Amino acid sequence: MSQSYPIWNDVTACIYKSSKSYGVRQEGAVDVKIGTSGSNSFHFVSHKVTHRKNEDGTRTYRFYVDGKIIKTATLNTNNEILITETDNE
Asked: Where are the domains of the chain?
């Protein structure tokens, strides 16, 4: 049975024969670590995607890197228009 999620992640990595995917309802966070093994690794970067349903029926999505908003998108579900904004600081 397939479910519907407001955030959908497709993951491609050299260890998979094909891409993997999963859905997220409100917030999805990833901590990327680098090093030589799982026990010898160091924090490199964190990224997060959030979803909020607004009172007017629109949906707001935010993409963060290390806690800083990088990109915001607002989806109007009535007419399926997506408006994106990029933080240029």
From this structure: 27-86
In angstroms, the CA 60 to CA 82 distance is 10
Give the three-class secondary structure for 31. strand
pLDDT tens figures, 55-80: 999 999 999 999 999 999 999 988 88
CA distance 70 to 60: 14
Using CA atoms, how far apart are residues 74 and 84, in angstroms rounded to an integer? 6
What's the predicted TM-score (pTM) here?
Answer: 0.85
Tell me the CA end-to-end span of the chain in Å, nearest whole number.
43
Q: Which residue has the tokens 């600081």?
A: 89
